[in-house]
Amino acid sequence: MVGFENLVEVPPMRKTTVGYDVPEGVDIRGRYDAEFATILTKDALQFVASLQRQFTSHIKYAMDCRKEAKLRYNSGALPTFDPATKPVRDADWLCVPPPPSVADRRVEITGPVERKMVINALNSGAKVFMADFEDALAPNWENLMRGHINLRDAVRGTISYHDKARNRVYKLNEQTAKLFVRPRGWHLPEAHVLIDGQPAAGCLVDFGLYFFHNWSAFRRNQGQGFGPFFYLPKMEHSREARIWNNVFTAAEKMAGIENGSIRATVLIETLPAVFQMDEILYELRDHSVGLNCGRWDYIFSYVKTFQAHPDRLLPDRVLVGMGQHFMRSYSDLLIRTCHRRGVHAMGGMAAQIPIRDDPRANEAALALVRKDKIREVLAGHDGTWAAHPGLIPAIMEVFDAHMGGGPNQIQSAKREDAAGVAAEDLLQTPRGVRSMEGLRLNTRVGIQYVAAWLTGSGSVPLYNLMEDAATAEISRVQNWQWLRYGVELDGDGLGVRVTAELFGRVVEEEMERIEREVGKERFSKGMYREACKIFARQCTAPTLDDFLTLDAYNHIVVHHPLASSRL
Q1: For residues 468 and 458, what is the distance between their CA atoms, to the nearest angstrom?
Q2: pLDDT digits over 489-541, tens only?
Q3: CB-CB contact of 428 with 325 (8 Å)
Q4: Is 142 helix (H, G, I), strand (E, B) or coil?
Q5: Which position among 105, 115, 182, 184 bears the catalytic label?
Q6: What is the pLDDT of residues 435-465, one digit of tens each?
Q7: How far apart are CA 193 and CA 177, in angstroms?
Q8: Tell me: the pLDDT tens digits for 386-408?
């Protein structure tokens, strides 16, 4: 799946007395820890291995199909609705009804599976907390394993955290948000877990370990007889949804629970997937609880899909919002599709974070959030995302005021007017200018995000926004696109073209600015120089890498060859 030429190999000790007890064909290369061993039990690993063996060929085929689609787009083809599946789009069918425990999802909060974050998010007042193993998490071994421990304790209601610096103990309230878990995408490997000599699929490790340890307690404590609940990222085609549906069915069979117990919301965050929404829901119709507008990754995917189309250049990323026709069309069609099929249509992320030292700027930011959320609820969305607990009261107030008293708008906002959304609407090139400040912001945000990711943080506050891998990806691919086609920066009167020389100068100047902003000590101790090399290399590469995190992942893998044993 990915090369590991830069990973760190820890030399073996002369003698080992402990190790993970693993089934045949499974090898754990992550550091041994007795607490981690309570997650990496032999039975849990056997379950993960069974999923890997059953579905690895299907995953490989799906990834090969992605490559073929990329070649078509790079040769001038455009994504469109598949004529072969028109009967699915035209037929009248419904997904199973939403479970009562998650009928009301009007505000959802997201964040990494870090212990304090899990507690605060579950206590935040949101209806749902999406605990993230994907874009908001740097998937080093420690983060992954501690994340599973944290979720196990959260599902059982026993999680607590002692903040020694503040001398404060955090624990769960009586009433908490419902827990959804987002595993990694199909394309990401887990290099610390080898199955039959090959890295396991990261998503199957995330799903398998979480499901194995928590399905029973979750159904008892959170799901009211349903669950567990998931968010599914980065899909490009319904064949990928079919794999997930089969994974869910296999897991339900293992647990001895009824088909349709597991439920999942799919993030529509790639341009090809917007033409497959009916088909994705159809494949998951026994396990679906809707679709979500993953709008930041969607913008990233627009650039990636059209990387060989110089007539489809994006303006400054701050100008690519929901007011753009192609983004509004995507949202409208998602709402119409979901409500026609009887499931939730979830809105996008509010990435703002409170500005505590500037009340005027904070109120201006909240006004933008309210405006965006009013647009979503009036369009017919059943709920939305927030990146910070401080936004939840304002967003909840907006949805409460416009939802008409019901738990969702599935029956009341059918959006038949969106039936006419065509491929041309979904592909319309966004309008706006390109500026030197846009190039600088992309570079500054991208480098700082990669630096944080390399040191273990996947969710990073930058310039009053919570940045994750999706926004860093937009920065990277937009810089690459502008460099590839030598675009003119027409937004600030400079009229210069983006060249390798100009970009090199921007990188140097933005590194100096980052050092001033974070301070010399933090800059010298951080991984800013390493991040700069990775980010600049990807922006100037002759071929656009599919994902920033695939390249950067090599730098956070640490192998411990003697971590597992067969007892």
Answers
A1: 6
A2: 998 887 899 999 999 999 999 999 999 999 999 999 999 999 999 999 999 99
A3: yes
A4: helix
A5: 182
A6: 999 999 999 999 999 999 999 999 999 998 8
A7: 31
A8: 999 999 999 999 999 999 889 99
Helix (H) and strand (E) counts for the chain? Answer: 20, 19
Calculate helix-pair angle for 325-340, 359-379, nearest 10 degrees: 50
Collapsing DSSP states into helix, strand and coil, what is residue 295?
helix
Q: Residues 107, 396: contact at Cβ < 8 Å?
A: yes
Encode burial over 303-319: b for 16+ CB neighbours within 10 A, e otherwise.
bbbbbebeebbbbbbeb
Radius of gyration, CA atoms only, the chain:
23
User: Using CA atoms, how far apart are residues 182 and 136, in angstroms rounded to an integer?
Assistant: 10
3-class state of residue 46 by DSSP: helix
Rounded percentage of the chain residues whose pLDDT exceeds 70: 96
Q: Name the nearest CA neighbour of 387 among 141, 136, 71, 562.
A: 136
Specify whether the CB–CB gap between 266 and 279 falls below 8 A: no
Terminal-to-terminal C-alpha distance of the chain: 30
> What is the amino acid identity at position 58?
H
The single residue listed with the structure tokens 């699929």 is 201
Residues whose CB falls within 8 Å of the CB of residue 322, separated by 6 or more in sequence, listed in order: 295, 328, 331, 348, 372, 375
What is the length of the chain? Answer: 567
Instruction: Sort strands 460-462 and 465-467 into parallel, antiparallel or unpaired.
Output: antiparallel
> Is the pLDDT reported for residue 304 higher than 60?
yes
pLDDT of residue 5: 45
Query: Where does residue 224 fall: left (phi above 0), alpha (psi -120 to 50 degrees), or beta otherwise?
Result: left
171, containing H or E segment? strand 168-171
Distance set, CA 285 to CA 159, 271, 280 (Å) = 33, 22, 8
Single out the catalytic residue among 332, 468, 545, 551.
468
Per the annotation, the verdict on 182 as an active-site residue is yes
Tell me, what's the pLDDT at 566? 58
Helix (H, G, I), strand (E, B) or coil at 39: coil
Compute the distance between CA of residue 492 and CA of residue 502 in angstroms, rounded to an integer. Answer: 16
pLDDT band (50, 70, 90) for residue 14? very low
CA distances from 167 to 114, 164, 389, 403, 408 (A): 19, 5, 21, 41, 40
Residue 187 contacts residue 63 (beta carbons within 8 Å): yes
**Scanning the structure block, which residue is given the tokens 């010298």?**
524
Whether the CB-CB separation of 163 and 170 falls below 8 Å is answered with yes
Torsion, CA 274, CA 277, CA 280, CA 285, rounded to 10: 160
DSSP assigned state of 97:
P
Does residue 348 register a pLDDT over 80?
yes
**Residues 6+ away with beta carbon under 8 Å from 305:** 73, 79, 270, 271, 272
Between 359-379 and 392-402, two packed helices, what is the crossing angle to 10 degrees?
30
Closest by CA position to 515, among listed 432, 447, 466? 447
The helix or strand, by DSSP H or E, that contains position 452, with its residue range, turns out to be helix 436-454
SS3 138: coil
